[in-house]
Amino acid sequence: AVGGVDRDRVDGHRVERVDTVLEVGTDTGAIAQKVAGFVAAYNDAVRFANEQSQVDPVTGTFRAESVLAKVGALRDLKATLETLRTFSVASANGLLGLPDIGIGLAA
To answer: pTM score, two decimals?
Structure first.
């Protein structure tokens, strides 16, 4: 006991010391799966936004199936998707964007 403190006892109960090993690693398979899921969802959203804003080349007006073309939320979605495609962050090596880590997204 040091200074009246017994390190082998807590509230009068004996504490058994056990060696523990903790290993930390990178699960690259799970990361790849998440990235693939992100890319698929992004491409689906782009496809949907494009389908919803198709213009008839003859009349110059939105096609009948483009029912969301005049909805502000669709324009916001398209702007957000473009921001994701061109987004970058500062890193020790300068700016780093999705293409820098191997992620190519549809325009």
So the answer is: 0.62
